[in-house]
Amino acid sequence: MINNKLSKLFTGLFAAMMLLTFNSAAWAQAATCGITGSATAGTAFYDPFNPSGLSATTINLNLTRLNPTGGGKTDVVNFYLKAQNAAANGTSIVPTVVALEGSSAGLGLNIFHNFATSPPIVAPTSVTPSAANRFLKLSFTGNNTASDTATVTFQVTLPANLNLNAANSLAFDAIFACSTSGGGQPTQQTGQISNAVVFPVVVLSALQASYVGPVLDFGEVGDKTTVQVQGASGTYTKSGDIRVASSGPYLINLSSTNKLSVNFPRWELGHAGAYARI
């Protein structure tokens, strides 16, 4: 019998309020141009074992451009998103609508890029996004307050079987290029902000466990001699495989009908699964 204290699927949230934040301090350190913003979305759930994954969730992102001192302004920002490791590979973040005093390009493209893949080219800001070069371009106009803001609607999709540990946040890095005009010589600048985009997400704590092999019937050992129990190898063995897939740490306990129990070490693994020979 497999008795696992974490076999219960705990209730969790994938963002009652799903916030997406561009760290303005980090942008200011990297460049004198760029954007800041935040967004919200409705409640959603992500079960790492759900074969359907998480269907597209709408996020409305409100952006404000950063303008350098001296009368200059941010006129173009190109950016894409990337994870800090391969755990979020396969995520999709697609801008579908942009409202601003100006123009945009890159709608309908997935601007999330898997870890360790070749990045798109975003600089200089005259570069145009395409299916082979996926990023979002925001081209602002004017140098007045009404021209400083933009609203972007994203469709965010998480595929099935993301190798995520149970957690309450999922952070992406923003890689960008921006340009300025007015207030002196035009500039072209680039930068990267770690944890620039953070989804406060509670991944459901979930576990699957199964055993494959012959029935673990050791028989009645009370009527066996020591030689019979030990056998030629000095042990009496039964073999099989336990498969465990978990989004958090777990403890396996095997027990017999007469309460003999064996504890396996606590393992911390992604839900991709592991096999233990017993």
SSE layout and pairing:
Elements: E1 2-4, H1 24-30, E2 34-40, E3 54-66, E4 73-83, E5 92-100, E6 102-105, E7 112-113, E8 136-140, E9 149-158, E10 170-181, E11 187-199, E12 207-212, H2 226-230, E13 241-246, E14 252-255, E15 261-263, E16 274-277
Parallel strand pairs: 4-7
Antiparallel strand pairs: 1-14, 2-3, 3-9, 4-8, 4-10, 5-9, 6-8, 10-11, 12-13, 13-16, 14-15
Textual characterization of the structure:
The protein has about 280 residues and is mainly β. The chain has two domains: about 25-200, Immunoglobulin-like, CATH 2.60.40; about 205-275, no CATH class. The protein contains two helices and 16 strands. It has helices at about 25-30, 225-230; strands at about 1-5, 35-40, 55-65, 75-85, 90-100, 100-105, 110-115, 135-140, 150-160, 170-180, 185-200, 205-210, 240-245, 250-255, 260-265, 275. The strands form four sheets. Strands 4, 6, 7, 8, 10 and 11 form a six-stranded mixed sheet that branches. Strands 2-3-9-5 form a four-stranded antiparallel sheet. Strands 1-14-15 form a three-stranded antiparallel sheet, with no helix packed on it. Strand 10 and strand 11 form a beta hairpin. The chain is rod-shaped, with a radius of gyration of 27 Å.
Characterize this entry briefly:
The protein contains 2 helices and 16 strands.
Jot down its keywords.
278 residues, mainly beta, Immunoglobulin-like, six-stranded mixed β-sheet, four-stranded antiparallel β-sheet, 2 helices, disordered N terminus, disordered C terminus
